[in-house]
């Protein structure tokens, strides 16, 4: 016990932590919160602090959109960690905070699979979501990082939307939900609030400001991140071309959720949609969830698509 308390005191003193106020009003209110580990690991950049306000009144669900690499996952874990630290009696990395204890913290983050027990990546994800919806209560804190990413766009978006709706109507847990499905931002209402991560664009350069601000993101910058990650130039340039073709043809890569629902209900009666499926290549392209792919997945897919295109052009 002395070791534990001594350690908590030491990090609090060394790293400028504050004593959170513990309350029982169901509110989590953090000013200038920081991620205790990420802020220690960063060497070149300064960690950007962020506020959090979760309450059953006006902001029960924070729906966070924002480009790849913006800091969504870091932010959500930060809120969970600070809540946990406050609850075990620790000081926390923030300017000030008032935190209501939670009964449990549920998280669904990152892709993992459990091949030995016969579960695929998506199955594991859905299992975890099922557990959360079953056991979370009004007093829980729920962190959902991009659920629905492991399946096709329409499937994934539909599941994500239905899960948020269920949490809002039935569970009422304080929830942080990060997503690349920008169409979900139209769910905003008196309980669901949109947040995004600020980005500054200058020419082709993109700066991630790591600031969580109210509002919805409109772009993903996936190709930009792929470039940063070192994908060959031919691939990222080709991706840019494909993206602009898709955008000029359809306005947006992922049709609005409403269109998605309409298509799910009456696929055969939609002549517009039918023409899009003319070639198996556009079929495969449409099935891609470009917004949420990892750079590696994007590269694999591009390779496959090109092989397919070669075949269709009779050049295989
Ligand atoms: N508040 C912050 N201040 C400084 N750097 C940060 C901050 N938040 C995140 N970062 C840095 O940005 C990196 C990417 O953050 P994170 O993984 O949270 O992005 P993301 O929005 O979840 O991206 P993706 O959509 O690809 O999952 C982190 O590894 C970290 O180094
Ligand atoms: Mg993330």
Entry keywords:
single chain; 316 residues; alpha/beta; 2 domains; 6-stranded mixed sheet; 10 strands; 42% helix; binds adenosine-5'-triphosphate; binds magnesium ion
How would you explain this protein's 3D organization?
This protein has 316 residues and is of the alpha/beta class. It folds into two domains: 2-219, Rossmann fold; 225-312, no CATH class. 42% of the residues lie in helices and 18% in strands. It has eleven helices and ten strands. It has helices spanning 2-14, 38-41, 72-87, 121-135, 153-171, 222-228, 233-250, 257-265, 271-276, 280-287, 295-312, and strands at residues 21-22, 28-33, 50-54, 61-65, 96-99, 105-108, 141-145, 174-178, 192-202, 205-214. Strands 6-7-8-4-9-10 form a six-stranded mixed sheet, sandwiched between helices. Helix 5 links the parallel strand 7 and strand 8. Helix 6 runs antiparallel to helix 7 and helix 10 (280-287) packs antiparallel against helix 11 (295-312). The protein is globular, with a radius of gyration of 22 Å. It starts with a helix and ends with a helix. Bound molecules: adenosine-5'-triphosphate and magnesium ion.
């Amino acid at each position: 016990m002395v070791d534990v308390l001594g350690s908590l005191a030491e990090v609090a003193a060394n790293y400028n932590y504050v004593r959170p106020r513990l309350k029982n009003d169901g509110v989590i209110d953090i000013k200038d919160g920081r991620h205790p580990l990420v802020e220690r690991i960063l060497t070149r950049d300064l960690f950007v602090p962020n506020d959090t306000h979760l309450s059953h009144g006006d902001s029960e669900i924070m729906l966070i959109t924002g480009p790849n690499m913006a800091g969504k996952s870091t932010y959500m874990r930060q809120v969970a960690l600070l809540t946990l630290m406050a609850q075990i009696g620790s000081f926390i990395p923030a300017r000030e905070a008032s935190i209501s204890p939670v009964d449990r913290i549920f998280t669904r983050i990152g892709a993992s699979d459990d091949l030995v027990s016969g579960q695929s990546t998506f199955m594991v994800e859905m299992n975890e979501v099922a557990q959360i919806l079953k056991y979370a209560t009004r007093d829980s804190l729920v962190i959902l990082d991009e659920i629905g990413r492991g399946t096709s766009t329409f499937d994934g978006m539909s599941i994500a939307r239905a899960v948020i709706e269920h949490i809002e109507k039935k569970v009422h847990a304080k929830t942080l939900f990060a997503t690349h499905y920008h169409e979900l931002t139209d769910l905003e209402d008196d309980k669901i609030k949109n947040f995004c991560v600020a980005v500054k664009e200058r020419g082709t350069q993109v700066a991630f400001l790591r600031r969580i601000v109210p509002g919805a993101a409109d772009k993903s910058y996936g190709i930009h991140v792929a470039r940063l990650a070192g994908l060959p130039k031919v691939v990222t340039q080709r991706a840019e071309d494909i993206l602009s073709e898709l955008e000029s043809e359809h306005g947006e890569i992922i049709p609005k959720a409403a269109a998605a629902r309409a298509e799910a209900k009456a696929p055969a009666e939609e002549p517009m949609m039918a023409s899009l499926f003319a070639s198996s290549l556009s079929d495969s392209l449409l099935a891609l969830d470009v917004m949420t792919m990892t750079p590696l997945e994007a590269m694999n897919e591009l390779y496959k698509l090109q092989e397919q295109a070669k075949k269709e052009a009779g050049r295989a």
